[in-house]
Input
Amino acid sequence: MEYILDVQNIHTFIGQYHILQGVNVRVPKGSITALLGRNGAGKTTTLKTILGLTPPREGKVIYEGKEVQGSRSFDIAIKRHWLCPRAPRHLPRPDRGRKPQDRRAQQR
Output
């Protein structure tokens, strides 16, 4: 199987804290993948490590067959990776299609 993203045994530290310990992720080409877990499980740190915002001390991040750790975050993001852990508040809500400030204006 061919993988678009292959994260191999990454260890990431934030300050003195060892946040990611031996994380492995493989994303097959053409798939949609979700990263799920409880609060504090390391989801955001994993994505930041893949994007190069928090570089790993050990391990490899391979995207489309090329190692990307050490690359600039912008160069990685421009290759179709992005981080959006929460939906921005300015986007319409699916249930109403209006922005939060529109609903407040109607209540006045």
In short: Strands lie at 3-14, 17-28, 58-63, 66-67. The CA atoms of residues 61 and 69 lie 6 Å apart. Residues 43-51 form the longest helix (9 residues).
